[in-house]
């Protein structure tokens, strides 16, 4: 080959490509409002589903004011909807307003179709921090709604998380969309999900096999209309970190089902009774004054900050009884107890450090024997 001179090099068309300026990659920045709203979500998760209030804790007061500000602005509600996994900004959602309908009788409470619905959010085994990223494809969220009867599926998610933790199941990459079948679990954008059903297969306009899926998500939402091809693209999208959860061998062999194993044992929380250790004479004068409450996790942890919370009368408390609640809503059981003892509720006002007045509602003047008798009676009825 002849040796090239400079003129030959400069006139070569490839040279133009070599010296052309490489386009700068556009950096996608996280909206600060998403960061701020995520901070509220994380705080609520770390406090057993309790929303921030106007307390003496400055962090809690700040988050309370921020959440109130978001709820007052329609444009912020619309903007943050895609990461509002707890439905905090949905004015029609019971998690936001938490209205308590006064039942007419104990049977009304026990026959409520939300009896098995557990409202409290539990800490997820999986990382939800990826909600901080924004996704341009808005259609991926448009048909996801709050799941009806989520209480039927929540035990499955808890069991699968436990099996992932103990090594019974593995989290692996998705190798082909043919592995997207009913009864299997996947992870999309950090959220564990369950394929409840797959509709009839058909050939779409692009010549690909497609079908309509019904997905249930760990955060209590569902998608009844997402297409197989769209879901597969989500799982294969590197930015969404899609994964597949392996099955349990006994399920594959037909010896068991995840539904059967999930129903064997599920603790939804604890009903507890505590007695105040307050030195305030207006409180200590009552010999049979008890608070009946619910904790989704450790009762000891729940009461560890009692002297700083109005619900505990700003004083330490002593645990006198606890009940582990299995396979039905502990929150609903708590509501039933409060209804039964409504006429024994202590009407009390507690001044806070900032001069406001709190009115704790869960304290009752009643004997411990009567509490035990009634809660045991409810549990018997629930198991009939």
Topology:
Layout: H1 6-11, H2 13-19, H3 32-45, H4 58-71, H5 74-80, H6 94-97, H7 106-110, H8 139-142, E1 144-146, H9 154-165, E2 171-172, E3 185-188, E4 191-198, E5 202-203, E6 209-210, E7 213-217, E8 221-223, H10 228-236, E9 243-245, H11 249-252, H12 258-264, E10 267-276, H13 281-284, E11 289-295, H14 299-302, E12 317-326, H15 330-340, E13 350-351, E14 357-358, E15 363-365, H16 368-382
Antiparallel strand pairs: 1-8, 2-9, 3-4, 3-9, 4-7, 5-6, 7-8, 10-11, 10-12, 11-15, 13-14
Helix pairs in contact: 3-4, 9-12, 15-16
Pfam family, one: MUG113
Protein name: GIY-YIG nuclease family protein
InterPro entries: Phage_T5_Orf172_DNA-bd
What does this structure look like?
The protein is of the alpha+beta class and 384 residues long. The protein folds into three domains: 32-91, no CATH class; 129-263, no CATH class; 266-382, no CATH class. The chain is built from 16 helices and 15 strands. It has helices at 6-11, 13-19, 32-45, 58-71, 74-80, 94-97, 106-110, 139-142, 154-165, 228-236, 249-252, 258-264, 281-284, 299-302, 330-340, 368-382, and strands at residues 144-146, 171-172, 185-188, 191-198, 202-203, 209-210, 213-217, 221-223, 243-245, 267-276, 289-295, 317-326, 350-351, 357-358, 363-365. It has a seven-stranded antiparallel beta sheet, sandwiched between helices. A four-stranded antiparallel beta sheet has the order 12-10-11-15. Strands 5-6 form a two-stranded antiparallel sheet. A hairpin with a 5-residue loop joins strand 5 and strand 6 (209-210). Helix 3 packs across helix 4 (58-71), helix 9 packs across helix 12 (258-264) and helix 15 crosses helix 16 (368-382). The radius of gyration is 27 Å and the shape is globular. The chain starts with 5 loop residues before the first helix and ends with a helix. Residues 91-100 and 113-142 have low confidence and may be disordered.
């Amino acid at each position: 080959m002849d040796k090239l001179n400079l003129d030959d090099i400069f006139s070569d068309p490839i040279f133009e490509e070599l010296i052309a300026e490489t386009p700068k990659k556009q950096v996608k920045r996280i909206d600060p409002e998403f960061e701020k709203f995520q901070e509220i979500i994380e705080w609520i998760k770390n406090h057993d589903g309790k929303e921030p209030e106007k307390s003496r804790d400055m962090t809690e007061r700040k988050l309370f004011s921020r959440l109130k500000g978001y709820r007052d602005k329609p444009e912020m509600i619309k903007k943050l909807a895609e990461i509002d996994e707890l439905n905090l900004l949905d004015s029609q959602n019971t998690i936001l307003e938490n209205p308590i309908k006064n039942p007419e009788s104990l049977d009304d409470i026990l026959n409520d179709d939300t009896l098995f619905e557990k409202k409290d959010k539990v800490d997820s085994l999986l990382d939800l921090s990826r909600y901080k990223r924004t996704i341009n494809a808005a259609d991926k969220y448009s048909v996801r709604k709050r799941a009806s009867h989520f209480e039927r599926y929540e035990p499955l998610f808890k069991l699968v998380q436990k099996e992932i933790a103990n090594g019974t199941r593995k989290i692996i990459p998705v190798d082909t969309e043919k592995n997207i079948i009913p009864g299997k679990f996947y992870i999309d954008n950090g959220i564990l999900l369950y394929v409840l059903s797959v509709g009839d297969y058909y050939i779409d306009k692009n010549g690909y096999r497609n079908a309509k899926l019904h997905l249930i998500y760990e955060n209590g939402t569902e998608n009844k209309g997402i297409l197989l091809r769209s879901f597969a693209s989500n799982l294969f999208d590197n930015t969404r970190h899609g994964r597949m959860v392996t099955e349990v061998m006994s399920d594959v062999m037909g010896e068991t089902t995840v539904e059967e194993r999930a129903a064997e044992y599920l603790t939804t929380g604890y009903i507890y009774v505590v007695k105040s250790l307050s030195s305030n004479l207006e409180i200590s004068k009552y010999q049979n004054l008890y608070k009946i409450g619910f904790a989704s996790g450790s009762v000891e942890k729940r009461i560890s900050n009692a002297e700083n919370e109005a619900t505990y009368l700003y004083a330490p408390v002593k645990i006198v009884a606890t009940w582990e609640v299995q396979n039905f809503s502990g929150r609903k059981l708590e509501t039933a107890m409060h209804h039964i003892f409504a006429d024994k509720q202590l009407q009390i006002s507690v001044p806070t450090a900032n001069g406001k007045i709190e009115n704790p509602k869960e304290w009752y003047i009643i004997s411990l024997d009567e509490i035990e008798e009634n809660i045991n009676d409810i549990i018997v009825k629930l198991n009939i």
